[in-house]
Design goal:
The complex is a heterodimer of chains A (378) and B (206). Helices cover 30% and strands 21% of the residues of chain A. Chain A is an alpha/beta fold and 378 residues long. Chain A has an eleven-stranded mixed beta sheet, sandwiched between helices. Chain A has a three-stranded mixed beta sheet with strand order 2-3-7, with no helix packed on it. The longest helix of chain A has 15 residues. The two termini of chain A are 15 Å apart. Chain B is globular, with a radius of gyration of 16 Å. In chain B, helix 1 packs parallel to helix 2. With 206 residues, chain B is α+β, with helices and mostly antiparallel strands. In chain B, strands 1, 2, 3, 4, 5, 6, 7 and 8 form an eight-stranded mixed beta sheet that branches. The chains are: A alpha/beta (378), B alpha+beta (206). Chains A and B meet through helix 5, strand 5, helix 6, helix 7 and strand 9 of A and helix 3, helix 5, strand 5 and helix 6 of B. Strand 5 of chain A pairs antiparallel with strand 5 of chain B, so a sheet runs across the interface.
């Protein structure tokens, strides 16, 4: 089967408008998570990574027709398209959009009727974004909880490997509003400070908003382009809102991804974990990592930098890790101090400089879904 | 040429009627969708108390899946990790989203919030049957037989699934439709070819 390369990428977050800017902020240990006091989102102050209120992300006459969610997607895709030669209007190019809640914040301010339902529909947003760039293929929308972004990359990889497309642009975004924040609050899943993935005192997640884009292609443009090698998805078949107690199903996905990539545990140079900093998620991931005999591999979670950016999370964390691979730098897990999971995994606490070849990215979400994808240098 | 795959069972729920393999097995004119789903639950004589806490999208998908795989012995032949679910719809979880956001005005309900993701219905079917394989949820304006058959065919071709439930489960208010297909490499009695034409034909029967 043919190789699939990442030929361009973009992260649009409160930390910056390009992947390079974002990576450099993370290297300097700068987090976008801070305390907000915004009564339109929550009655009490909360920690999250948010764009400044009223920000516009694209500067064109017709911006009024785009919601914040759509602007984020357009801005991120635009930035990613600046590098390379991919033509959205080519019949061999596909757009994938990953999101969990899209335009759901409109429910908070608008009268609920048929017109609003149509405006909220993900297909409406996808069409606006696709038309902006003159894509001729109908965009593919993935909404699979917190694995949406990583599943977007995996789906794009499969569509290219199976010869359906030459280029796939995968873009993900989510916007934090009262709807989402109140939901995580009702689960008592929000941290009272900047989150602490894998730490013994971890007390929940932070939420974050962002957009991110990767462009996948069947042929490389430079010797530095990273390959998406393999990946797998599994379901816990255990609980819709709590992860597996054993981690066996995430392990199943990791194991298949490693076998397909023909890699052993010693070949995985680092792991970009989901690491939400909830008690159960981090424990489940640690078990899966141990089952895969990856205890020695440095593990990071980037949730302390960005919070959980939902549909964008898998993309952002993959992109940061791709830049890690290219620069031979493993980033630390911000917020982690003292080991707090039952397996002795190697949570990365400071920047590591060493030659890197492959990394594993994992994600898990509501509905019991798990995804694992392996990325490698050429 | 790629090996043929087969639709070995189908279930369509729409317009107060339920079809299994193109034959009407149930119809009733309850006043609303919720009562219809409860009546159907009683009709299929399933004991699954978790059903009652599900939102309408999960209830509909759950019932369709129960009818789809009832008496399908082939399901037991595969390991949990070999069985996949690929679902699609137009309205994501908007039906549950609206209900959840109503609750926020009083006190935000975690029991409603958890259903504000479309793939929860996949999770419910996996929990019920201990299916642990590939799963993904895509959103399309209309039923997209071309995509489904291409994507699921690749999952078989790449050895990712050995058996797959795929199709459409959509609910918004009183509008609903489910059309699920059980797809296998092995031809069974009454099986039809897994292709775009058959998917569309079965989808449109009610």
């Amino acid at each position: 089967m043919k190789d699939v390369f990442i030929i361009s990428d973009n992260i649009l977050s409160p930390l910056g408008n390009t992947s390079a800017e974002n990576f450099s902020k993370l290297k300097d240990n700068i987090s976008a998570v801070k305390q907000h006091n915004n009564p339109s989102i929550a009655d009490e102050p909360f920690y999250a990574s948010l764009f400044d209120a009223g920000m516009h992300f694209i500067h064109e006459d017709n911006t009024y027709t785009y919601t914040k969610f759509e602007q984020l997607l357009v801005a991120s895709i635009q930035q990613a398209l600046q590098k390379g030669d991919v033509d959205p209007a080519d019949k061999k190019t596909l757009l994938i959009i990953s999101t969990t809640k899209g335009n759901i914040s409109l429910l908070e301010t608008e009268q609920c009727n048929k017109a609003l339902q149509k405006r909220i529909a993900l297909t409406t947003s996808a069409k606006l974004v696709a038309d902006h760039f003159h894509f001729i293929n109908q965009p593919l929308i993935i909404s699979n909880a917190c694995i949406s972004g990583l599943l977007g990359i995996l789906t794009g990889m499969r569509l290219i490997k199976n010869n359906h497309y030459e280029n796939v642009i995968v873009a993900g975004a989510d916007v934090i509003s009262k709807f989402i924040l109140s939901g995580f609050q009702s689960f008592q899943a929000l941290s009272k400070n900047i989150c602490k993935p894998f730490d013994k005192d971890r007390d929940g997640i932070n939420l974050g908003e962002a957009a991110a884009t990767v462009i996948l292609s069947s042929y490389k443009r430079t010797e530095n382009d990273i390959k998406v090698v393999s990946g797998s998805v599994s379901n816990d078949a255990n609980h819709i809102s709590g992860p597996s107690r054993t981690g066996d199903e995430l392990y199943q996905a990791i194991n298949i991804a490693m076998k397909d990539a023909k890699l052993n545990s010693t070949d995985i140079d680092f792991i970009s974990a989901h690491g939400t900093a909830t008690m159960y998620n981090d424990e489940m991931e640690a078990k899966a990592i141990a089952s895969a005999k990856l205890e020695a591999a440095p593990v990071n979670s980037l949730k302390g930098f960005y919070g959980h950016t939902l549909g964008a999370a898998g993309l952002i964390e993959s992109i940061i890790s791709i830049h890690s691979l290219q620069q031979n730098i493993v980033l630390p897990t911000k917020g982690f101090e003292e080991h707090g999971v039952s397996k002795s995994i190697n949570v990365c606490t400071e920047i590591i400089h060493k030659p890197l070849q492959n990394f594993l990215k994992t994600a898990s979400g509501f509905g019991g879904c798990n995804a694992a994808v392996i990325f490698s240098k050429q | 040429m790629t090996e043929e795959k087969y639709i070995i069972s189908s279930c369509v729920i729409s317009n107060s009627s339920v079809l299994k393999n193109n034959e009407i097995i149930f119809s009733c004119n309850d006043d609303d969708l919720h009562s219809f789903l409860i009546s159907l639950y009683h009709f299929i004589k399933t004991e699954y108390p978790k059903f009652y806490k599900m939102d309408n999208l999960s209830k509909l998908g759950f019932l369709a899946s129960e009818i789809l795989i009832k008496d399908e012995e082939t399901v037991k032949k595969y390991k949990p990790g070999e069985i996949g679910i690929v679902l699609t719809n137009a309205n994501s979880s908007l039906d549950a989203d609206e209900k959840y956001f109503q609750s926020v005005k009083e006190i935000a309900s975690p029991a409603l919030f958890v259903y504000t993701l479309p793939n929860i219905v996949i999770g419910e079917i996996c929990i019920r049957n201990n299916f642990k394989g590939e799963n993904s949820f895509f959103v399309f304006e209309n039923f997209n037989a071309a995509f489904i058959q291409q994507y699921v065919r690749d999952l078989f071709g790449n050895n990712i699934v050995q058996l797959c439930i795929c199709g459409w489960v959509d609910v918004l208010g009183e509008n609903y439709k489910a059309a699920l297909f059980l797809v296998s490499k092995n031809k069974a009695q009454n099986a039809v070819l897994f292709n775009e034409e058959n998917l569309d034909r079965i989808f449109k029967t009610v």
